[in-house]
Design goal:
Blueprint: E1 2-5, H1 8-11, H2 21-30, H3 41-46, H4 54-63, E2 72-75, H5 82-92, E3 96-97, H6 99-102, H7 105-108, H8 115-128, E4 131-132, H9 139-151, E5 155-156
Parallel strand pairs: 1-2, 1-4, 2-3, 4-5
Helix pairs in contact: 4-5
């Protein structure tokens, strides 16, 4: 199993790929904690500071030799663009799962209103997976890498 990260707040750093300039500006200024208010998305993308798109993720996985029957766990909250955005990755790797697909509604209920606990579920899968391939450098990436290095029995690409 491969675990991969993708979150709306990661994607918004490259907003011009996904939002109009007006939508992005409204979003950034609506949240006082959003530090960077003026974002040059093309520059960020050229500098390699944007998360991989589902299309790019499929290319990377194929280039690394993963077969189309590889089980992929998406460790994330709601994905911007939903399932339509994931279509290209799913076309290449149809065995994509998320916690909502693996657990029943009853099993998820205690975690539903607690975002940190939902992330903890993703964390547990990520540290237990055979391979962890983050699509963006963030806190989850660093914590999973640190845990896996500490345990010293898993690989990170």
């Amino acid at each position: 199993m491969i675990a991969s990260c993708s979150r709306l707040d990661m994607v918004t750093c490259c907003s011009m790929l996904y939002f109009t300039l007006h939508e992005a500006t409204v979003f950034w200024y609506a949240y006082p904690w959003w530090k960077e208010k003026e974002i040059d998305s093309e520059k960020k993308r050229l500098d390699g500071l944007c998360p991989l798109t589902p299309e790019e993720t499929a290319l990377v996985l194929k280039a690394l030799g993963f077969s189309s029957d590889t089980l992929i766990y998406i460790a994330s909250g709601e994905i911007y663009g939903g399932e339509a955005r994931m279509a290209s990755l799913r076309a290449e790797f149809p065995k994509i799962v998320r916690k909502e697909m693996l657990l029943s509604e009853e099993e998820l209920r205690p975690f539903r209103n607690h975002s940190t606990q939902m992330v903890a579920l993703d964390y547990l899968v990520s540290i237990a997976s055979d391979v962890f391939i983050p699509t963006y450098e963030g806190n989850m990436d660093k914590v999973v890498e640190g845990h896996r290095r500490f345990v010293d029995n898993k690989i990170r690409m």
